Amino acid sequence: LNTMKGILSERLLRRFRYTLIARMMRFPRSYFENTSQGELVSMVTSEAEPMGGLMGDAVAQPVFQAGQMLIILVFLFVQSLWFGLAGVALIPLQAYLIPMLQRQINLLNKERIKEVRLFSSEIGETAAGISDLRTNGGWRYRLATFTDRLGRLFDIRFQIYQKKFFMKFLNNFITQLTPFFFYAVGGYLAIKGQITVGALVAALAAYKDLSNPWKELLTYYNQTQDMAVRWEVVVERFAPRGMIAKEHIEGEPAEIPHLRGTIKLEHISVRSADGSAILDDINLEIPKGSRVAMKIPNQTERTAMAELLTREISPSRGRVMIADHDLADLHQTVLAARIGYAHGRSYMFQGNVGDNLLMPLRTSPKTVLWDPQQMDRDAIETLRSGNSRDSTKADWLDPGIADLNTVEDINDWWYELVKAIGTEEIMFRRMVTDPMDPEQNPELAANVVALRGEVHEKLKEQGLDKVVYRFDPDRFNPALPLGGNLMFAAPVRSITQAGLAMERGFLAMVVEHGLAEQAIAISQTLVETLHHTFGRDGTDHPLFTALGIEEDLYEQLVDIASRRRNEGDAVLSEDEFSLLLTIPFAFTAEQIGPAFPENFKQEILSIRKNKGALIREKARDLFTPITPDKYLPRMTVLENALYGRISAVAGLQADLVLDVVSDVFKSHGLQQAVAINALNFPTTLGGTNMPALFQERMSFARAAIKRPDVLIMNHSLAGHDAEALGGLRNQLSELLPEMTQIYLESHFDSPNDFDMSIEIRGGRVDGVAQIDTPNQEDTISDDLRRKLRIIARNDLFNNLDPRNQRLLAFAAQWVSIEQGGQIFAMGQRPDAVYLCLSGKSELNWVDPNGASHHVSTVEAGRLIGDLAVLMNEPRQFDFFAVEDSSFLRIGADQFRSVVENDRVILLSLLRTVSSHLTGAADLLRTAGIDIPRAGENLPAPLGDKRS
To answer: What range(s) does the ABC transmembrane type-1 domain occupy (predicted)?
Structure first.
């Protein structure tokens, strides 16, 4: 029975805690700003814990005790009506007094719980701001506030103790009063002969047994009242106003519709907790696929607008419509899949980068791990406890959310985002210098091994092979620790000095082969050198940190070396000797320096040659042999590609080595495969081990990885310059042309780079500028809108009148040219201008001998053929595509008509021609060509043999 009660209480407690956490998922964001984490943690853990015990006794305790009491009362009434009445005479008095006193105690308990929550909140706040308290001298006042809080807790508890123990005294007094009357009245009646002594003794014994269940029932009542207070206080805090509707967050929607359409804000007002207006009567209409700049100087208003569009806050009036869907009616899964939100305070959860990045693609499990008809124990307990039946062991990754098919597609899309930010090279260089688990990426591991020969040849060509210590079974490698040189092997897992000291079998092998004496001598010299260099208080120096020794271990080694120097080996314990012996296995000969004797290197090579295989076999759990065809798991990708290690004194040449490896990997298309290892990088609580710039990029990537229909960037990527952000916006428009991009900032340097510019001041719309798209979607086709967007973002056309931009877009045609294809030829009539969108092309001119000469390379964003069209003269050059390229072709007549009617484009063309002339002058000056004066003969054309 007790076991079943315990199981029942645990199931109910598990259900209760899960319910609280599930409700917490529905809290409005503003509630978390006013409620501390410590308070919520306290309620779910410590405050809920006592309820579990009572839940198990909720039925069993009153039934069992009341049953016992009823049987005893029946016995008393059977013995004598007066005995029965005497036994229950004072119970009504207790039933009145005890609950009355308990209610007073409950009120005090309620106050106590509130004070404890505030106390917990203040502790959490102190822990978070401890540095500010110390540096600003606030610790004494803070301690005084804790004293005040603890004093109030003491006073409340003192009152509880007074009332609680008075109640116990009163209860015990009344309980013992009945036996007194039994003895007094019953004894008198027995003397008079009206009852027998045996009946009196039996009645006394029965009443004695009656008091215990009655006392237990009173205790149970007190517990239920105490738990009722706890329940009321907890439930009160877990039912705030503005919670997301249960049906919007539980379960799954019937479908996840796309939100590609117009965004409408209709009479939107948002108010703060105190009722003041943050946004007031906002009316906006944002066309589908637009790139919108929202200038909102006030941070509170900016955050409110962003959270309004993600439904993190609800408007006090009005509604938000996206693609004819009311935002308030959509399931949270739809918002999570179709709206991306990146901001500067994005949270990173403990795990790894991949877990955080792919969160939007893990909204529900895609596999079921148990048969509903034959559930295992965990599934049955989950069902009985009312918890989620979703298993963390299931496959949650769903590429379909991003309209992708496979995990490889997701990786490719992530790398496109990395390139859009312009950090692919940074990412590669960061990850190539980190270890990689070959079991997680066997294909890359095999490719790295296959490239070792090519990498070595490239290094030799550039004379960089001298700064790389390649692994050679016949040579001592100064960049490998003693253990690696002894066995010509690399560790299979991370091995600390403390961990290696515990490997007694391995250290015994070192002693057995006669290496202990010199290893200990090296250790002694190195520790003394470190102590002489850094002392006891220099462990915070970057040079010491680079050694990788823990401060506590360093101090322990200094103490061991000091005692050994003064008193010899005899004073060292076995553990201390083992720890000192591990030092050569943790440092390289380069790090140890001259203290590592040359004869010791030769001795190590001799042992490796004669007994290396035997030693490797004995240490196979710790080390793996170094062979040209094997990937070494604990070495970095760079070291595996080099099949060696870069010298510690390589200096700037180390960067040149990395450049060579980068070029080789790039030529084989492996940069992406290396960069993807970043997804396995561990993240600590809150991402504190990541730099702020990385967290910014992480926030953006997490918002964009799902290929959303609406992307909201609230002061995101603030650490990047305007040029990088402009490039990112253009890349996103090319990658996801139908996605609506909304950027919220306090200021924009180039609002004309956007399709729409909105300014909000004082909570109201202060201005709306429609830059390149009309208000109504149905007045323009998607194709024309795309052309218009491209033209508006070109440097030559971005300041044109919107009407002329639309005319150019209407006249423009898409043109795709394969590699080697000709766009136009020298001497042809100028029929159009070409705006390069992608790829690379070249302008060439042909001399009288038919030889072709390079003039210029044309890349995305450049307009070609404009001067020939304006002057109406034949083409001066041949124009070929050197890569697959795409263009917008604008007819000559349409282009001339726009230029003739818009002075802005004339000025832009004049600036362009001026820059070309300046460039030509610089080229002539560099080439040393003399320009003939008037009347002088022109020099012979290049390639002309007539002279």
So the answer is: 1-226
